[in-house]
Amino acid sequence: MEQILSILHGLKPAMLMVVVQVVFAGVNVLYKLAENDGMSSKVMVSYRFIFASAVMIPLALIVERKRPKLTWTVLLQAFFCGLLGGSLSQNLYIVSMTLTSATFVSAMTNLIPGITFIVAVTIGLEKVGFGTMAGKAKVLGTLIGIGGAMLLTFYKGVQINTGSVHVDLVHHQHHGASSSYSSHPSSAHHLWGALLALGSCISYALWLNVQAKMGEKYPCYYSSTALTCIMAAIQSTVFALCLEKDWSQWKLGWNVRLLTVAFAGILGSGLMFSLVAWCVRLKV
C-alpha cells in the first residue's frame, strides 16, 4: 500500500500538468470565441491578468501570511516572470492564433518542453545524461518536437473533409481583419503565425526556468503567482493602452468576452500558474 501511495505521489506533478493542459484547451476555445466576437487581443490579455491578480492577491494574503521578505532580486524575477510567462507570451500566442488556427498554435506548444530542456541545460538547471534512458528520452523528445513543428509549418497536405456536425459557437459573426485572417489564412500569414507561435513557446520556456530560480528564493506558490500576475497586468495594460485606441473595446458585458477573461484569468493564470510553480519547484 505504501509503495502504491509513493508511486501516486511521484505521478502527482504529471497528473496536475494534465489538468493544466485541459484548462488551457478551454482557454484556447474561449480566446477564439472572444476574437470572433470582435474583442481586441491586447485588451483580452490585459483583462486576463487583472482578473488573475484580483483573485491571487487576497488568496496569497490569507494562505501565506508567513512568507519570506521581498527582495529586489525576487521583484526582478517576478517582473521577468510576468513578462515572459504573461504579457509577452500571451500577446504573441493570441496573434499567432489569429493568423493561423487554435489547432495549429496548440500543436506548436509541444515545442515548450524541448525548448525548456535546452534552456535549462544551458543555464545549468538540468543535466543531459546521455548515458541514461531519461537523458536519451529527453533528447529524442526534443528532436521529435522540433521536427513536428517544422512539419506543421512548412508542409501543406490535402484537405480532409470530416463532414459537419452543425455546431457553430460563433454564429458566423466575424468582425474586423483578425477574423478574416483566420478564415482565409494566406501563406504569409501562416508563416508569420508560426514565427509568433515559436516566439511564444520560447518566451514560455524561459518563464519556466526563471520560475524555477524564483521558487528557490521565494518558495511561496500563491504569493509568487500573485506577484507574476500583478507584473503581467501592469505590462499588458500599458501595452494595450498604448496601441488600442478604441475605448469601446474595454467595455465588458454579460457575454463571451467576460466569460473568456474571467475563465482565462482565474483558472488559466491564477490557479494554473500556482500549479505550474508548485510542479516546477517539486521537479527541480
Automatic annotation (TrEMBL):
<feature type="transmembrane region" description="Helical">
    <location>
        <begin position="190"/>
        <end position="208"/>
    </location>
</feature>
<feature type="transmembrane region" description="Helical">
    <location>
        <begin position="261"/>
        <end position="280"/>
    </location>
</feature>
<feature type="transmembrane region" description="Helical">
    <location>
        <begin position="101"/>
        <end position="125"/>
    </location>
</feature>
<feature type="transmembrane region" description="Helical">
    <location>
        <begin position="45"/>
        <end position="63"/>
    </location>
</feature>
<dbReference type="InterPro" id="IPR037185">
    <property type="entry name" value="EmrE-like"/>
</dbReference>
<keyword id="KW-0812">Transmembrane</keyword>
<keyword id="KW-1133">Transmembrane helix</keyword>
<keyword id="KW-0472">Membrane</keyword>
<feature type="domain" description="EamA">
    <location>
        <begin position="14"/>
        <end position="152"/>
    </location>
</feature>
<protein>
    <recommendedName>
        <fullName>WAT1-related protein</fullName>
    </recommendedName>
</protein>
<feature type="transmembrane region" description="Helical">
    <location>
        <begin position="137"/>
        <end position="155"/>
    </location>
</feature>
<feature type="transmembrane region" description="Helical">
    <location>
        <begin position="70"/>
        <end position="89"/>
    </location>
</feature>
<dbReference type="InterPro" id="IPR030184">
    <property type="entry name" value="WAT1-related"/>
</dbReference>
<dbReference type="InterPro" id="IPR000620">
    <property type="entry name" value="EamA_dom"/>
</dbReference>
<feature type="transmembrane region" description="Helical">
    <location>
        <begin position="220"/>
        <end position="241"/>
    </location>
</feature>
<comment type="similarity">
    <text>Belongs to the drug/metabolite transporter (DMT) superfamily. Plant drug/metabolite exporter (P-DME) (TC 2.A.7.4) family.</text>
</comment>
<feature type="transmembrane region" description="Helical">
    <location>
        <begin position="14"/>
        <end position="33"/>
    </location>
</feature>
<dbReference type="Pfam" id="PF00892">
    <property type="entry name" value="EamA"/>
</dbReference>
<dbReference type="GO" id="GO:0016020">
    <property type="term" value="C:membrane"/>
</dbReference>
<dbReference type="GO" id="GO:0022857">
    <property type="term" value="F:transmembrane transporter activity"/>
</dbReference>
